[in-house]
Amino acid sequence: MGLGDAPRETWATRAGFIFAAVGSAVGLGNIWRFPFQVGQEGGAAFLLIYLLFIILIGFPAMLVEFVVGRNTERNPVGALKAVGGGAWRYVGWIFIATGFVILSYYSVVAGWTIRYTILGLQDGYLADVGEAEAQFVDLASGLDAIVLHAVFMVTVIVIVAYGIQRGIELAVKVLVPAIIVITVGMAIYAFTLEGASEAYAYYLSPEWGVIAAEWTSILPAAAGQAFFTLSLGMGVMITYASYLGEDRNLAEDGAIVIGFDTAIAFITGLIVFPILFTAGVDPADPGAGAIFVSLAAAFGDLTLGWLIGFIFFGTVAIAALSSAISLMEVVVSYVVDERGIERRTAAFGIGGALFLLGIPSATDLVLLDLFDLFADQILLVLGGLLLMILVGWLVADLAVDELSRGIGDLGSLGTAWIWAVRIPVIVVLIVALALGVLEYVEFLTGPFAEWLAAL
Ligand code: TRP
């Protein structure tokens, strides 16, 4: 089929692929987004539904991306063209656009984590929640934010420019173990805090009444979180699997990646909630400012809080880096494969464009929301949905064949997988898309319209 004319890099080791996929999955979604979702959606009840969705929705969807990537050995646009034929390439373009939009503001938020790491060294966390909030608003937008967004972007560019083996693989083999060791260490620390037992009760014993009363908001939130945290819906796992170059048990690899990602999210809850309870903050309050306001204020309150905060935010920055690399690689692989541009040139050019695109998000929180909601609630879900329709309904036989490479005969498990994609995954994505569009319209006519009017 004329694919793979140019020599294409592959991962040096099996562990390299798994580290990279784990590094992509574990990020701001686990450490920043997950705890405040739990807080807003009813604690342990949300956790339970979330875990269910990871297995029911996340696992089959991840295998879809894996088989498409390994089968085509191409970037997402080329992969979809190869699998689905001409017009499906446009879905690949949605992926590229999503990568651009997400990374532009992801890098700004990552810049905040760098700022808050430095703040620890300056002993700068403020114990008063009101003051901590004012501090966050001050640091989140403006020159500080732009400069750190640039610093983060340059780091991502340099790693991606070095390519798969010498850039991404090397970086994730250092970053991922660091994330794991530090998170576990911090959970042990959190266990010693006064508020720990109260926090565990809140986090770990679901109240069935909460699920019954709140399921209409818990279900979409849990499904969205499952997709985002596993880096699904924009071709990251297609791209990473395209560098496999050998037959391996993809189901096993997927289970390992999901296991690590879920463990890190779960453990983050064991860190964040004891700290919040100890500082007397209601976990339902924080919202999106959770770690930068409530948690930072708790660090301002705790003995040696500056040090704990320094380690915590440093870890978040590292986790954001290994995720940002994967977002960038989607776009770079497209330009390198399809446009024949040299990797280094591509990385610097795309990184530069991403820096510019991120500037609005670094100057105003409303604009960051504008990008975040659009990417998260619309682009990501739309791209993911179309991919699941293509693989689940149009090329299912090919997909099952590809999955069996490296596993052997799948028997009825292959059928079970395809039906999991066809019904639960697709239905959940359709519902999530509908709700996402509604929410976006609300945002555009609400906060965004107000912002425009105040200009
Ligand atoms: N999964 C990452 C996190 O939890 C974010 C991320 C990286 C992502 N690549 C992605 C999310 C692709 C959606 C799609 O922070």
SS strand fraction: under 5%
The chain-level structural class is mainly alpha
Count of discrete alpha- or pi-helical segments spanning 4 or more residues: 18
Q: Helix-strand pattern, N to C?
A: HHHHHHHHHHHHHHHHHH
Shape: globular
Ligands bound, unique = tryptophan
Largest sheet: none
Q: Using only CA atoms, what is the Rg? A: 21 Å
Number of strands: 0
Roughly what percent helix?
over 70%
- How far the N terminus sits from the C terminus, by CA atoms, comes to 54 Å
| Low-pLDDT stretches | 1-5
Describe this structure in words.
The protein has helices spanning 14-25, 28-40, 44-72, 76-84, 89-121, 129-140, 143-161, 163-191, 196-204, 208-229, 236-241, 250-278, 291-301, 305-339, 343-363, 365-394, 396-404, 412-453. The chain has 18 helices and no strands. The longest helix is centred in the last third of the chain and has 42 residues, at 412-453. The termini are far apart. The protein binds tryptophan. Tryptophan binds next to α1, α2, α10 and α14.
